[in-house]
Amino acid sequence: MDFSTKTASRITGVLFIVAAITAILGVILYEPILNDPDYLVQGSAHADQVALGGLWS
Question: Is the separation of the CB atoms in 33 and 49 below 8 Å?
Answer without folding.
Answer: yes
